Amino acid sequence: MPSFDEVLKEAGEFGRFQKRVFFLLSQTGITFSSLFASVVFLGRAPDNFWCRIPGAAELSEQCGWTLEDERNFTVLPLQLGNESVSGECKRLDVTWDTSVSCTSPLARYGNHSTGNLPLATCHDNWVYEQPHSSIISEYDLVCGNAWMLDLSQAILNLGFLAGAFILGYAADRYGRILIYLLSCLGVGICGIIVAFSPNFTVFLIFRFLQGMFGKGTWMTCYVLVTEIVGSDQRIVGIVIQIFFTMGIIILPGIAYLIPTWQGIQLAISLPNFLFLLYYWVVPESPRWLLTRKKGEKALKIMRNIAKHNGKFLSPHYSEITISNEEVSNPSFLDLVRTPQMRRNTLILMYAWFTSALIYQGLVMRLGIIGGNLYLDFFISGAVELPAAFLIIVTIDRIGRRLPFAMSNIVASIACLITAFLPEDIPWLKTTVATLGRLSITIAFEVVYLVNSELYPTTLRNFGVSLCSSLCDLGGIIAPFLLFRLAAIWLELPLIIFSILAAVCGLLVLLLPETKGISLPETVEDVEQL
């Protein structure tokens, strides 16, 4: 009986069929990255808001004030009397009297400076010039509640983490395409509920669920694409990352054209329903079917692939070699039970954690400080585009391991140099930091490919999902690490990033080279790499 890779070679390793499936599934990268980075635009700081005084509605009705009049009469006196108080989080704690004059409601206090009048902290009842422009104005995430915006992003990352475990396990047990389609449905439905959440609690619950299903779509489509192409074509695992970057580049355009956060949320969520049409054009992974003792179904799909690729399978291909490995429900113990699997798993988990932590840390450091939010975000996404092209040029010539190690080492050196460059040459400091970001982006994209190539088919989706869950943990820790250490010394986070990247660069040299090697089908195959 021929092996799967032998049949795939005859059917076409990257023919018309695989190119079509690849292009269709790659669109998932655009929607997933839009979800990943959406908080930048969903949580835009409101341009102008203030704390409304108690009884302001009655006063406005009595005096015929517009919102601008109300602000001029109740907030500006506070600002004039105390320049350190903006009127956003504090208000004057006085009795407002319009019985004498609507144009001077503080007349009863005579010539007393408003700087000497008592103040009260504002707990609710804020007024926004654009009340539905972001979730900040929608749910009053200002002043003492500002930390809740960070919570919303942490909850999304927790959703990614849950999706990596739950849906990664489900895809190995029930099939890639089934979990992919269910995840797309979940992202769409939860996205709509998030857009129309009546309160912040409902918003958080369904943002968590959207994150969980979103991770399911991204990880499953990635594994599916990798499993239907030949060993020489697995570079598609890098090319698919370009679509992730495309989502980052497209997002500011969507946000610029749509003025409300609900509109942006719907724009990045609704396209997931279109992916349900893939039920009729994207088959189940033949590799996965073989591990589940479904050789006839796998062969039927292979004949269909050959037909679309303009090829014909030999008649004697009546059966394909099926893995003799006993298939069980995957668990973490399966990933660390044997020496090579254990080494690969621990190194890959560290690589995922480090890549995510440094990547998000450098993004936040370079940040979007002032200027044009939309243009700055677009440029920050465009910086990532060269990463995929550099990988494509090098990875099939010199292998996976060396670019993986070198990208981490370069990122380490760039972070270290940036930390000690003087502040009076900001252009050089920014340039070197950008080099660090480009390098860690390369490392981030290579780890996807290497991870999928170092696990057997029976454990591939679960292994990729479990290891990549450390990416979500790194994403949760990154802002706290960055801001806490920066409070001690501004450049201290860069020193930590440099150490983490250097250790990662050395560790990945211990991984086996997978260039041109068939995907392992069993744990025994991995042990022999």
TrEMBL record:
GO molecular function: monoamine transmembrane transporter activity; neurotransmitter transmembrane transporter activity; quaternary ammonium group transmembrane transporter activity
The Major facilitator superfamily (MFS) profile domain, residue ranges: 110-516
Lineage of source species: Eukaryota, Metazoa, Chordata, Craniata, Vertebrata
Record key words, sorted: Cell membrane, Glycoprotein, Ion transport, Membrane, Mitochondrion, Nucleus, Transmembrane, Transmembrane helix, Transport
InterPro entries: MFS_dom, MFS_sugar_transport-like, MFS_trans_sf, Orgcat_transp/SVOP, Sugar_transporter_CS
Name of the protein in its database record: Solute carrier family 22 member 3
This protein's record includes keyword Nucleotide-binding: no
Gene Ontology BP, a term: serotonin transport
Catalytic activity: agmatine(out) = agmatine(in); guanidine(out) = guanidine(in); (R)-salsolinol(in) = (R)-salsolinol(out); L-histidyl-L-proline diketopiperazine(in) = L-histidyl-L-proline diketopiperazine(out)
Superkingdom of origin: Eukaryota
Subcellular location: Apical cell membrane; Basolateral cell membrane; Mitochondrion membrane; Nucleus outer membrane
Keyword Nucleus: yes
PANTHER family in alphabetical order: SOLUTE CARRIER FAMILY 22 MEMBER (PTHR24064)
Membrane topology type: Multi-pass membrane protein
Positions of transmembrane segments: 21-42, 151-170, 177-196, 202-225, 237-258, 264-282, 347-368, 374-395, 402-421, 427-450, 462-482, 488-511
Family stated for the protein in its record: Belongs to the major facilitator (TC 2.A.1) superfamily. Organic cation transporter (TC 2.A.1.19) family.
